[in-house]
Amino acid sequence: SEMRHERVKRTKTVCTYCAVGCSFEVWTRDRHILKIEPTHGPANGISTCVKGKFAWGHVNAEDRLVHPLLRDGDHFREITWDEALDVIEKKFKQVMRDHGPDALAFISSSKTSNEESYLMQKLARAVIGTNNVDNCARYCQNPATMGLQRTVGYGGDSGSISDIETAGLVFIVGANPAENHPVLATRIKRSHKFRGQRLIVADIRKHEMAERADIFFRPNPSTDSVWMNGVAKYILDHKLHKPEFITKWVNHFDEFAKSLEPYTLEYTEKITGVPQATLITVANEVAAADGVCILFAMGVTQHCGGSDTATALSNLLLLTGNYMRPGAGAYPLRGHNNVQGASDFGSMPNVYSGYQKVEDEAVRAKFEAGWGVTLPTSTGKDNHQMIDAILDGSLKAMYIKGEDTVTSDSNAGYVAKALAQLEFFVVQDINFSETCRYADLVLPAATSLEKDGTFTSTERRIQRIYKALEPLGESKPDWEIIQLIANRMGGNWKYTHPSEIMAEAASLTPLIAGVSYERLEGFNSLQWPVHADGTDTPLLFTDKFNFPDGKARFFPVTWIEPSEEISSTYDLHLNNGRLLEHFEQGSMTRRTAGIHEITPNSFVEVSPELAEERGITSGRHVQLASPYGRVRVQVLVSDRVQGKQLYMSLNSVDQPVNNLTSSHTDRQTHTPAFKETAVSMTVLPEQ
Ligand code: SF4
């Protein structure tokens, strides 16, 4: 009826799942979410995937957190916000008095807004006085950022998503975009099918994009930097590189050329298992293509050599002149909706917003003046170091927002043991996560549909989200909660809207100097760097790389063997990743019933060869065990995996893959080596 129609509200927002950054209008009537309608999304046009279109059940889920909860023995009781803030004030002050500010630590969320990550670092640094602040990019994307910062100076996608369609060759390494970045994958499928774009996939698992690829090869696990160097050496030896580009734009060529000497075709084949003929074909394709985009994700980063592999792929792009033009460059495919922004806005232990170093005195002086405080001088602890610091007794209190650390971090048993030892632990989330079970105090946060703010997508695109619904119950937007805590601790903050937080961040951060809510109004968006006059940067490098002399740098890397060796006891390699229908551990997507039912059980993919050897078929239960723990899962026999490779979805709460992963990390960034896991598989009796 007319009346009903009038009550329908249409609100522009951005998807809360992956970092493709699809934007659309959400239609609501009262608290009902009626539909998602893509209209003018810059990244997605009129498309969305199943998650963006349907997976909003978490917003009105019956088990949303709607009151602060205080631990009372082994259960929790509802308390008021005032009581919750009293507890925080008392405990934080007590820990600060007894142990100093570095006994506290703060973890922001890659799901919350830019403004909220900015405030989280400000709370830690300006109010508490510690640089112990991080976000979950530590679990995934930091090695990608490191590899690009070393070579080209900025850790971000080289161009826009739409540019990928113009590349002569798309090269996907250790990423599964058809399931994890579906709308982006659709664009590649289209340009591959209809515009003659070449597609190469390097992965240990034959996922959908691998099936479509012109060339698909399976390197041995954790050897990607070796074939990248091998391919680079072949290109150099056959003079297929771009000397004019290198002379003009890249430093340290001689060092790099020398570092490639060991990577003969024979050595490369021996380590990687990739046949020499394939290496030669790949080298020729990369050298000849009219623009190469390398898309990569966790298959590259989550190894002890993750940063080095990201570096090696950037070296290869520099060698072949594949930067500084549309349809070329490196595309780290960011996972969460705002994993790019959580780091951009300073929730990291070594940098303020815009990657300005805390140890740089001039930078620190600027933030001290801007915030009116004296700031701590040395780098803080990252997520990984925080866990160790709890166990060595130096870290006593922690505040985590929007992060299910127990299931997301590697070696879940070790992490849980640490969190249980905290003197005081606050967790803020939209529902009661596994991590909440270890909390002393749980704070109810608003969902993305219940607040204003901005997210930054994988293509460095800053986009507005607008409030479609009031926060459910007594939940509050994260920025409001952080401000309440800051003010209890003497912060004297007076933000009335996220636009004011953005204005402050922009005034202190050259990377986003020209960002304002006025400029982002409606479906407008800005890709960083955004200059003071409001011009943005769809193509990241046009007339210089981000170093003082404007030149990029070759950065030689050496390969190290994977941390968890296949042995006679742990004789299989376990890989892991997401499923199309779910996000991370499924705490949000599993709250939409129709989506939960598609893949209700945890499963492990087993190759037909291995299934035959062990005498098992699909549906059989097995126990996987590593030195760190075990899980019980159902078998799915699949030729996506080969030989002694297993693959398990990480979208599982009941049998988390991180019971099996180790505490080994990337050497440079401490990102866990999730993809270096050796396990045994025991077939369980039939039920
Ligand atoms: Fe959301 Fe990513 Fe799907 Fe787009 S592709 S609708 S951003 S999950």
From the structure above, extract its key features.
single chain; 687 residues; alpha/beta; N-terminal domain of TfIIb; Dimethylsulfoxide Reductase, domain 2; 4 domains; 32% helix; binds iron/sulfur cluster; iron-sulfur; electron transport; oxidoreductase; 4Fe-4S
Architecture overview:
With 687 residues, the chain is of the alpha/beta class. It has four domains: 2-54, ADC-like domains (N-terminal domain of TfIIb); 69-139 and 338-527, Rossmann fold (3-Layer(aba) Sandwich); 142-332, Dimethylsulfoxide Reductase, domain 2 (3-Layer(aba) Sandwich), CATH 3.40.228.10; 572-683, Barwin-like endoglucanases (Beta Barrel), CATH 2.40.40. 32% of the residues lie in helices and 19% in strands. It contains 25 helices and 28 strands. The chain has a seven-stranded mixed β-sheet with strand order 5-4-18-17-16-6-7. It has a six-stranded mixed barrel with strand order 23-27-24-26-25-28. Helix 4 (114-128) runs parallel beside helix 22 (478-488), helix 5 packs parallel to helix 16 and helix 19 (383-391) packs across helix 21 (412-420). The chain is globular. The N and C termini lie far apart (55 Å). The relative contact order is 0.16. The mean pLDDT is 91. Iron/sulfur cluster binds at residues 15, 17-18, 20-22, 44, 48-49, 51-52, 181-183. Its EC number is 1.9.6.1. Catalytic subunit of the periplasmic nitrate reductase complex NapAB. Receives electrons from NapB and catalyzes the reduction of nitrate to nitrite. This is nitrate reductase (cytochrome). Residues 8-63 form the 4Fe-4S Mo/W bis-MGD-type domain. It catalyses: 2 Fe(II)-[cytochrome] + nitrate + 2 H(+) = 2 Fe(III)-[cytochrome] + nitrite + H2O.
